[in-house]
Amino acid sequence: MHTHALFLGNEFQGEVTPDSLNHYSADRLVPLPTNYWSKDYYWTWSGRTAVEDAVRVEADLLMQVDTRRETTQMTVLTAGGAKKYVYNRKAAEAIAASGIVASLLNALTLVDKKKKYPFAYAESALTGEPLSTVLARFEAGMNASATENARIEAISQKAKRDIKAAPTAAAKRTVFAVINWNWSA
């Protein structure tokens, strides 16, 4: 981590850390701001002043919100193409069975169970549970996942709107710092 900006006249040359091996004259060095991150700042041509760029800060913070959202949502979801396919199919079966009385689901013929609800039927056959019980579990899991992902998405979208609305880089950083990822309705 560099500690100073190096100038030639008023032209910014780069970031350096003065030590006994380099001999920069003091008039060429300007200490970096405490929270300096080069991609969020630009240097003025006169005055050798580091100016935090609100647009750059906003872009960086929005990316951090998206990264946190994705990471948090993946704790609820299962990675992998095959798992996504399976969960989509299970969800489709649960939705198709929603509203059908349990006794009617359990009374379906073996052929109908296999055709209409292949994942639920396979689990039902393996565990001995009624088809309706397995489908209810699929629906409960689907709803729990959807509720948690909706919560995370709501936090993320509000945070991004608030960051965009903040007028300065400092205000944007403050908004980001107070995002409550543990909020729940």
Report on this structure.
This protein has helices at 54-74, 81-97, 102-106, 110-116, 118-127, 131-165, 169-177, and strands at 4-8, 11-16, 29-31, 41-43, 50-52. The chain is mainly alpha-helical and 185 residues long. The strands form 2 sheets. It has a 3-stranded antiparallel sheet with strand order 2-1-3, with no helix packed on it. β4 (41-43) and β5 form a beta hairpin. α4 (110-116) packs across α5. The longest helix is centred in the last third of the chain and has 35 residues, at 131-165.
Give me the number of helical elements.
7
Average of pLDDT = 86
Calculate Rg over CA atoms: 28 Å
Q: Classify the helix fraction into a percent range.
A: 55-70%
Distance between the termini: 42 Å
* Structural class by sheet pairing and helices: mainly alpha
Element-level helix/strand string: EEEEEHHHHHHH
Count the beta strands: 5
Low-confidence parts lasting 5 or more residues at pLDDT below 50?
Answer: none
In oligomeric terms, what are we looking at?
Answer: single chain
Strand content: 5-15%
Estimate the global geometry from the Cα principal axes: rod-shaped
What is the strand arrangement across the widest sheet? 2-1-3
Major sheet attributes: 3 strands, antiparallel
